[in-house]
């Protein structure tokens, strides 16, 4: 069983490494040590401490441990207002699931180059735009609950999206959402949305949470009757 591959200063590309990691997810491929040493040295103390805690690595940051951190697939940061910038995560090429709750993050652009990110939650945080999120074509789950986001247009290019939570945002209309034909779950609670018509063509939708919106109860009931396969939750 292959456990570790060393290919620093070789002709092996990042694409080659990512392909190998998909085939052998448990294999540690050490291939960018100089870049990671430079990256780690530029992190402030808080980010270094945070990543040590999240990775469970408290020993010396040698090239193997730096690569292990960069290879993390899941990262959750909660109630940390010292986290303001996502630039430190640009080396996390294997990251699949990122959750940020109650942070000071206001810009998600730095993570939109991560090729494996499938699930993103940025909630109760001061983001108001979804800059370049349309680049994350592989995204399946997006949660921006309780943020100041108004414009969903960049999201409409995420055609693999299965769940979307925009509850408590400044979004007022769903026009364009009909592009998300794979959508199975949609949450629009506590918004000023007034029209559910764009949902009529979402044939895979199974769950709709829509309490406290600007749609009359009679209109919601009409939608329920027309789409009996959708579990509509409202009051």
Describe this entry's structure for a reader.
With 235 residues, the chain is α/β, with parallel strands linked by helices. The protein has 2 domains: 1-71, no CATH class; 73-235, Leucine-rich repeat, LRR (right-handed beta-alpha superhelix) (Alpha-Beta Horseshoe), CATH 3.80.10. The protein is 21% helix and 17% strand. It contains 5 helices and 10 strands. The chain has helices at 14-23, 33-42, 45-55, 63-70, 217-226; strands spanning 4-6, 28-30, 74-80, 97-103, 119-123, 141-143, 163-165, 185-187, 207-209, 231-233. The strands form 2 sheets. It has an 8-stranded parallel beta sheet, with no helix packed on it. α2 packs across α4. The chain is elongated, with a radius of gyration of 20 Å. 25% of the residues are buried. The mean pLDDT is 96.
Key attributes of the depicted protein:
single chain; 235 residues; alpha/beta; Leucine-rich repeat, LRR (right-handed beta-alpha superhelix); 2 domains; eight-stranded parallel beta sheet; two-stranded parallel ribbon
Topology overview:
Blueprint: E1 4-6, H1 14-23, E2 28-30, H2 33-42, H3 45-55, H4 63-70, E3 74-80, E4 97-103, E5 119-123, E6 141-143, E7 163-165, E8 185-187, E9 207-209, H5 217-226, E10 231-233
Parallel strand pairs: 1-2, 3-4, 4-5, 5-6, 6-7, 7-8, 8-9, 9-10
């Amino acid at each position: 069983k292959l456990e570790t591959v060393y290919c620093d200063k070789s002709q092996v590309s990042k694409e080659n490494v990512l392909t190998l990691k998909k085939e052998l997810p448990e294999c540690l491929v050490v291939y960018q040590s100089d870049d990671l040493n430079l990256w780690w040295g530029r992190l402030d103390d808080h980010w270094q401490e945070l990543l040590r805690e999240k990775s469970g690595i408290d020993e010396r940051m040698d090239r193997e441990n730096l690569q292990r951190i960069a290879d993390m697939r899941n990262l959750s940061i909660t109630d940390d207002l010292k986290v303001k910038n996502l630039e430190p995560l640009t080396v996390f090429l294997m990251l699949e699931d990122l959750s940020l709750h109650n942070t000071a993050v206001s810009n998600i652009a730095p993570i939109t180059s991560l090729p494996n990110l499938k699930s993103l939650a940025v909630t109760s945080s001061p983001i108001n735009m979804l800059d370049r999120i349309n680049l994350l074509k592989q995204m399946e789950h997006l949660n921006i609950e309780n943020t100041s986001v108004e414009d969903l247009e960049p999201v409409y290019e995420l055609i693999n999206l299965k769940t979307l939570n925009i509850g408590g945002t400044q979004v007022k209309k769903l026009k364009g959402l009909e592009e998300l034909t794979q959508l199975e779950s949609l949450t629009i609670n506590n918004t000023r949305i007034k029209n559910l018509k764009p949902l009529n063509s979402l044939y895979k939708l199974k769950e709709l949470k829509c309490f406290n919106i600007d749609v009359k109860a009679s209109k919601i009931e009409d939608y329920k009757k027309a789409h009996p396969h959708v579990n509509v939750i409202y009051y």
